[in-house]
Amino acid sequence: MIATRRLPLLVAALAFCAALTAQADTLDTLRRTRTLTIGWVPGNAPFGSHAANGTPQGYTIDLCKHIAADLKARLDLPELKIVYVETDWDTRFTMLDTGKTDMDCSASTMTRDRQARYDFSPAFYVTGTRLLTRKADKIRSIDDLGGQTLAIIKNTTGEKLVMAHNDAASLGLNFIYVLDADAGMAAVREGKAKAFVLDDIILYSQISAAADGAQYEAVGAFLSIEPYGIMMRKGDTPFTKMVSDSLSALLPTAEMPALYQRWFNTPTLNVPLNRLTKETFITPNREPAFP
């Protein structure tokens, strides 16, 4: 009787595993369709934004274009078309899970939790979570925000960090959710929030691009160390290896500082190459975020 009852469960489990295996075989899909589907988050310069003609552009986009060219060559394909799928900070996960994208080319932090659920390339940039505030408010750290409202984006590492700090320090913070970095800055501008939390490079980009950017600043010590990697489905080992090998070969070359300069040192943005990012170029790695 016990064996009989377990049989349907076993069949279902085997079918589920078979479905995962079929979904995970991305290299075979590329050979068959000659199409690579890339998920990306717009409004996220310098990593991803719309060019004047509406096409995706940015630091991560360029990296993924390089990887696509390598995939085309290594798979000996006459062509490999790139299809870009717009996601947001929440749907980037479900788009991968459902096979609607092959890899996420946005700015995804490699946390331990995410590494348990997804595969990642080596890190291509390292930043940290900080606060965007008005200069006039003279806020220097999250501890100056007791009882105030903080804007956060769902499913970002910043969300977990500030909520944990709020509980530990009994700050009594209020939270409002915003869709993206543009909305976060707007919340501060309109007085709906006293600060907005996100990775500091994205905050710098928001400040640089805003007409009233001189009124804002990114403040506080890093609440975290955030290594960004290209995110892929878990268990898709041959695909993950080929993507990772391509990026690992590129990172230590002279192309990377030049690519960095193109996107991080512009008329509207000037962010020097930090030590942690430089180290990832020299020694490619998948060290997870801290804490």
Automatic annotation (TrEMBL):
This is Amino acid ABC transporter substrate-binding protein. CDD domains: PBP2_GltI_DEBP. The keyword Transferase does not apply. InterPro entries: Bact_solute-bind_prot3, Solute-binding_3/MltF_N. The keyword Transport applies. The lineage of its organism: Bacteria, Pseudomonadati, Pseudomonadota, Betaproteobacteria, Rhodocyclales. Keywords: Signal, Transport. It comes from Denitromonas iodatirespirans. Residues 35-267 form the Solute-binding protein family 3/N-terminal domain. Pfam families: SBP_bac_3 (PF00497). Residues 1-24 form the signal peptide. It comes from the Bacteria.
